[in-house]
Amino acid sequence: MHKSQRPDQPVLYGIAGPARGRKVVLGPEAITVGRHDDMAVCVADPKLSAHHADIVCTDGACVLRDCMSTNGTFVNGELVAEVRLAPNDRVQMGHSEFVFTRLGELDEVAAMLAPSETAELVSDSDTSVLSTPKVQVSVATQSVQVQKVCAMGEVPVAHKLCSLYEVGRRINVLSGLDALLDLVVRTILDEMDADRTVLLLFDDETGALAPSVTRCRDGITLNGPVQVSETIVRQAVESQQSILTEDAASDERFTEGESISLVGIRSAMCVPLLANTKVIGVAYVDKLSLTAAFGAEDLEFLTVLCNSAAISIENARLFSEVQARNHEVTEANRQLEASYRQLEETQQKLIQAEKLSSLGRLVAGIAHDLKNILTSVTGYAQLLRMPAPDDKRATYIERLNETTAMCTKMVRDLMGFARQDDVTPEPTSLNTLASEAIDMASGPAAEAGVEIVRELGDGLPKAQLDPLQMMRVLTNLMTNAIQAMADVDGPRRLTVRTGHEADEVYATVEDTGPGIAQEAMNQIFDPFFTTKPKGTGTGLGLSLCQGIVAAHGGSIEVESAPNRGARFTLRLPLEGPLCQGCGLSAAATED
């Protein structure tokens, strides 16, 4: 014992494998273990990772931490990520096995282990950490009983089972297809001493079998893509069974396989990847020399590994497809939202353009009307300045009054459209309003040669209406009808009907005029739209009528066909939304 070393100082002592006989004295500084030259404990063990594990001792406690090694770290037969070591713990890393003890007890421990365990790796002793009799690794739908192979006491076989356990654990948490395939291929290369490993998967679109991952053992140089025996792969896919050939060149099953001799394949294995009953691909492994050909245990290991990986590979592929579809849907939604925003912007621009266009038509119509009015006013004013008989002067003054009245009406229509006066409902007889509107329209109708027909319903209940506003609507509709029939050669008839249905009353104004063109039907209620000659209307009348009727909770309907007249129907509720709570009964009938 070195003078600076103490008997209670912890030590890791190699008892099996490439590290057998190695003594590692542990201290407060971290001890690194691996196969890389930079490691504090460098072990020439191909199953060790470059940086396999760390051991740190502080305050009398030693902690072993696995550094995400490929094949894992085991303490007393259990896979660990980080553990506090206790005296006589057995530590398995790769093919190397250590015992954790104290420096003062090292000789005694070494004597206890000699010669059965320190001298021989192959043993039937139940005390060996690799001979645990009832370890079971569950992989996909299969389970591997470790008891049978561990009874043989072979460290490599037991280690493969531990690798299967670790790989199965990692497969269950990997969702990325590339990472999953890489893990499977690395495991095959590490555990089977293969020269070449290829995972081939079926393409869902083409149905062709194509290489997905290809790896070669260190030291083998590829001069182009790996050539895989199509003969062996085809048999594995068609039979859905694992295939092993220790010498492919002399195997009678593959005598017709040109690719075997062409590629120079000696020992090979091919295992189908079965997801339930569907073959999604194959795992192909081969050696280019007859040295240490693959055996039945290798085939069993590869089969179990592939069965474990197949379901996860299929799930990973489905997961990737779902992610791709989600990405497509997200991108489509993004484009749809962008298109919708663009549509909204375009719609707003069109609305603004239509407003400006409507305003332009309004201004043009008003300017024309005002020009005519001002021309008349100017003309009559000049006539009044000239000498004339009294009766002529009276006529000029009357014409001036009519002209200014036209101007007043125009301004009133514009103000009414802009202000939209509130509706003040009260129990009102629709028949009374219709009769008064007919009386007002009788003069203009007679001048235009229009016959007015009254068809007023009997016993109409009073409705909650604003008399002035509703009179305005009826007068406007009748005036429009009379003006529409001015140039009709046939009968000129204006029919006014009233009636009631259920909880509403209605009034119909029907004419025998030229009707309304189909292309104008959707615009007749638009502000500033008019079918009258330029200068004879502002296009506000029907828009105002619709607003007034809507304020009463009613509707206005239009029916028309070219050369068959037009019919406007007002439908008004007995008690509209504006009269709720007013305390007036709308059920009273007309006197």
Shape descriptor: rod-shaped
Mind telling me the C-alpha Rg?
51 Å
* Straight-line N-to-C gap: 130 Å
Q: Approximately how much beta-strand content do the residues carry?
A: 15-25%
Number of helices: 11
Output the structural class: alpha+beta
The number of distinct β-strands equals 25
Question: What's the helical proportion of residues?
Answer: 25-40%
Report the major sheet. Answer: 6 strands, antiparallel
- Overall pLDDT: 77
> Which parts are unreliable, with pLDDT below 50 for 5 consecutive residues or more?
114-155, 577-591
Major β-sheet strand ordering: 2-1-11-10-7-8
Short description:
By secondary structure, this protein is α+β, with helices and mostly antiparallel strands. Strands 2-1-11-10-7-8 form a six-stranded antiparallel sheet, with helices on one face. It has a five-stranded mixed sheet with strand order 4-3-5-6-9, with no helix packed on it. Strands 15-14-18-17-16 form a five-stranded antiparallel sheet, sandwiched between helices.
Q: How do the strands and helices of this protein lay out in sequence?
A:
Blueprint: E1 10-16, E2 23-25, E3 31-34, E4 41-42, E5 53-58, E6 61-66, E7 73-75, E8 78-80, E9 82-84, E10 90-93, E11 96-102, H1 106-113, E12 136-139, E13 142-145, H2 146-150, H3 155-171, H4 177-192, E14 196-202, E15 209-216, H5 230-239, E16 243-245, H6 258-263, E17 267-275, E18 278-287, H7 296-385, H8 390-419, E19 426-428, H9 430-447, E20 451-455, E21 463-465, H10 467-484, E22 493-501, E23 504-511, H11 541-551, E24 555-560, E25 566-573
